[in-house]
Write a structure and sequence with these properties.
alpha+beta; Ribonuclease iii, N-terminal Endonuclease Domain, Chain A; Double Stranded RNA Binding Domain; 3 domains; 11 helices; globular
Length: 304
């Protein structure tokens, strides 16, 4: 159920939409001060402010304002970035499927922000690795950049922030595992990067990217040599231990549309690592990654 209130003498600074005499301000956490009430309040993500002449119509749906603002606050805390215009963060979380079930024609998906964020991310990572690896060839730089900005790496970063919990998407997409789908998580991560750029410019977004994506590339041997964990483990174990890793799926959980596989890798009949993933291949890669960490930590194989 919608509620409406009217405020007199409100001046709308936005230009009218093409073909319309009225203009719309859509705010996600936008602070407005109404002189009539002599107070300020925060507009939640579900508010549409429609200015008609000297009248302001405020339509608020039934989602509790405090709940929405609290969720956005917790996400900002998770990503360690505070938005000046939190509407940008909110838009970055809108999956395309959400529009199929939303009556609000003014809500925009995160696709434009994703496009922008993708370009900005590429530029920042390219500049960072160009300066960090002055002796690397073009091919080596391309391989490092691809590993840093690939869908899987961005999705892992998004999962560390629990981005899937905040996504606004259609029920069908959500029920089919959309909140943990790599493509959705990576796209949302790019959209958040685009939102940070729009909110505070190149300096802060560069700092965000370097803190979260580029800070560990010196110690991430997978990025530097271009090999996936299984390939690297195979080579190291064959070279140093004269044997080969043996993989197996030890558990399958979750509903049919959202399976989670657990794999283990054996070296000389001893468990060297476990890993989980949405596919058998991803679970085995994670198992290999854990095995590499254990072997290198024990000094059994030497890191590159």
């Amino acid at each position: 159920m919608s509620h409406q209130s009217e405020v007199q003498n409100y001046h709308n600074p936005r230009s009218p939409r093409p073909g319309e005499k009225q203009s719309v301000i859509k705010g996600f956490g936008v602070h407005l001060t109404f002189e009539l009430w002599n107070c300020s309040f925060t507009i939640p993500p579900t508010v549409v402010l429609t200015a008609k002449g000297r009248m302001l119509i405020m339509e608020i749906d039934s989602i509790p304002r405090t709940q929405i603002l609290s969720e956005l606050d917790s996400l900002q805390e998770a990503i360690r970035f505070s938005f000046e215009d939190v509407s940008l963060l909110s838009q970055a979380l809108v999956h395309g499927s959400y529009l199929n079930e939303c009556d609000d024609r003014f809500i925009q998906t995160n696709e434009r922000l994703e496009f922008l964020g993708d370009a900005i991310l590429d530029a920042i990572v390219a500049d960072t690795i160009y300066n960090r690896f002055p002796d690397a060839s073009e091919g080596e730089l391309t391989r490092i950049k691809s590993a840093l900005v690939c869908t899987g790496n961005l999705a892992r970063l998004a999962r560390s922030f629990h981005i899937g919990d905040y996504l606004r998407m259609g029920k069908g997409e959500a029920d089919s595992g959309g909140r943990d789908r790599d493509r959705n998580l990576a796209g949302t991560m790019e959209a958040i990067i685009g939102a940070i750029f729009c909110d505070q410019g190149f300096g802060p977004v560069r700092e965000f990217v370097e803190q979260n994506l580029a800070k560990d590339i010196d110690s991430n041997h997978q990025l530097l040599d271009g090999r996936d964990p299984k390939s690297k483990l195979q080579e190291l174990v064959q070279s140093d231990m004269k044997t080969t890793p043996d993989y197996g799926i030890v558990d399958i959980s979750g509903p049919d549309h959202e399976r989670v596989f657990t794999a283990q890798v054996l070296i000389n009949d001893s468990v060297a690592g476990h890993g989980t993933g949405r596919s058998k291949q991803k679970a085995e890669q994670e198992a290999a990654r854990e095995a590499l960490k254990r072997l290198e930590g024990d000094g059994i194989v030497q890191p590159d």
